[in-house]
Amino acid sequence: MRFDDDAELDTSEVSDVRGSRVPGGRATVGGGIAALIALLLGLFFGVGPEQLGLSSGDEEPAATASSQAEVAQACRSGADANRRDDCRIVAVVNSVQDYWRAEFQRRQGRYATARTVLFTGQVGTACGSATSAVGPFYCPGDRQVYLDLGFFDELRGRFGASGGPFAQAYVVAHEYGHHVQNLTGVLGRARDGRQGAGSDAVRVELQADCYAGVWARHATTTPDDRTGRLLLTEVTEADIQDGLDAAAAVGDDRIQERFQGRVTPESWTHGSSAQRQQWFATGYRTGDMARCDTFR
Fold first, then answer.
1. Distance, CA of 200 to CA of 271 (rounded, Å)
2. What is the DSSP letter of 51?
3. Please, are residues 116 and 89 in contact by the beta-carbon 8 Å criterion?
4. In this structure, which of 68, 131, 253, 268 has its CB flanked by the most CB atoms within 10 Å?
5. Contact status, residue 282 vs residue 213, Cβ threshold 8 Å
């Protein structure tokens, strides 16, 4: 995975609140192994921590003390994205949103930009306050993606993924898949609180995986809508394998087997490792969001 060294990054699409102190209560769940499993299964849930019972309910609606300084100063070009994790996230966000803007326009729709918020430890959102333990998520209330970069160390260490830059890209593209669902009205289907292998919650997550694959198919052919030049110049088959590996690492069955010693499909919220890989691969193979109908 490589970006054009001379490409310009648009840091306005990423808000950097790392190190900021956010007002409001700390997101909590009960103690013990049940709490750990709840948090682990919250990874990539994508619709805000209140869906997991993690919100204290009295926070400010969003993180407002954005420093923006570090990414704005350090992340100016594709060369920066090729050597720094935070700049790589900026570049992926730019690429993903360039694609969806063009795709919505092609379908006579209008894409609304969503910002990614980089944070450390804890963050306040329109969906409540959440800690890094929740993992990356999308909040429909403020239309923002929230990400603690430390999660990628967890993905490699705790969940056994091979890692790599494209694993990071898959995570970001998945969360923007939830933004696309929010814009198209699909995301609301996961809010009935039901779980299980056939639940709408699982179908929503698998569709977001598929949308991530669709972006990956078009990533190296989608120009920057500001400059007209390509931002992402190379995605290899090894990169795609890293994405598939990351998708498998956060399958419900693999997480349950690792942390509770048994698989309970009736409590799934994201789908199995095989399903997550299948739908990412479907998006990548077809490059067509219409083929991502996981509800049929």
1. 11
2. G
3. yes
4. 268
5. yes
